[in-house]
Design brief:
With 279 residues, this protein is of the alpha+beta class. It has helices spanning 15-30, 40-47, 51-63, 95-101, 120-126, 156-159, 162-165, 170-178, 196-202, and strands spanning 67-70, 74-77, 82-85, 106-117, 130-140, 143-153, 184-193, 209-218, 224-233, 237-240, 257-261, 264-268, 274-276. A hairpin with a 5-residue loop joins strand 12 and strand 13. Helix 1 packs across helix 3 (51-63). The longest helix is centred in the N-terminal third of the chain and has 16 residues, at 15-30.
Length: 279
């Protein structure tokens, strides 16, 4: 066990900041040997301060990504986040593959799979009164990280098992269960705060950050076959977006046009322009 530094109570630096900086050192020294971090009670004893001061220092480290909390379990040292590309393509790796790259073990569990009356918003999109609701949790090193909630045509219920749904992507589930061939998908991503229900399932607190990804899977005639969403824990997940500046033929997309305005050269890339002062 690494030894904490002695707190300088005469310093102009607040005590919780001194503790935060020393905890960063402890994290670097101990993360290779342990995963769970000290409890608040242990830190109170180590630094000889009150619980409120310790909690303030730890919360700062949680905000900065050094630590994360699991309700009812404890505080843990953060490992590298799971990276997921935002768009499809031949180089898109599955969630499980990304976990393996990060040296983690991924397990998927189907928590619900049942026929339900379509909620009004789903009924309006799928044009069906009865649908198959699929909910599953994806665990990384035994920690729930991703919550999937999707609505399929009712025929999916009879055409595929829960076990198969653990290992397939949403378009694969649709195709394997019904023979329907999906054409494309549209995804929206936004930051949201955890509700009580979702927090319970992901073992996080209400109002903790989540990355919400809404998805619709379409057929060739542009009708919607599947609708749903994925909730990713914001403390353990990172969305990667690749931006290309080349056309299909390999040429640069933005053609610069030189303009002169009051002695200043402006290069217009069909984006908000950048002013450059000569010389």
């Amino acid at each position: 066990m690494s030894q904490p530094v002695k707190i300088d109570r005469n310093s102009y630096t607040p005590i919780y900041i001194q503790i935060r900086e020393d905890l960063k050192r402890l994290i670097e020294e101990e993360k290779a040997h342990r995963e769970q971090f000290y409890s608040d009670e242990e830190l109170v004893q180590m630094y000889g301060v009150n619980r409120l001061t310790v909690r303030r220092a730890v919360e700062k480290l949680v905000d900065e990504g050094y630590l994360y909390r699991v309700r009812g379990v404890g505080t843990f040292m953060s490992s590298p986040k799971i990276n997921m590309p935002a768009a499809g393509g031949k180089n898109l790796n599955s969630f499980e593959e990304q976990c393996r790259k990060a040296g983690k073990v991924c397990v998927v569990k189907v928590t619900e799979m049942k026929l339900v009356q379509a909620p009004p918003a789903v009924q309006a999109v799928l044009q069906r009164d009865e649908v198959c609701y699929l909910e599953r949790l994806r665990y990384v090193d035994q920690i729930p990280m991703v919550l999937d909630k999707f609505y399929f045509p009712a025929e999916v219920m009879a055409g595929i098992s829960k076990e198969a749904c653990c290992h397939l992507k949403m378009p694969e589930i649709l195709n394997k269960a019904t023979g329907i061939v999906p054409s494309y998908a549209v995804m929206e991503a936004e930051a949201v705060l955890a509700t009580h229900e979702d927090g319970e399932k992901l073992q996080i607190s209400v109002q903790d950050p989540l990355l919400l990804r809404k998805m619709r899977i379409y057929l060739k005639d542009d009708s919607t076959a599947v609708v749903g969403k994925t909730l990713n824990r914001g403390d353990l997940f990172r969305l990667i977006v690749r931006v290309s500046y080349l056309t299909c033929s390999g040429k640069f997309k933005y053609k610069a046009k030189e303009k002169k305005h009051e002695g200043v050269s402006i290069r217009n890339y069909h984006q908000p322009y950048e002013r450059r002062v000569p010389g």
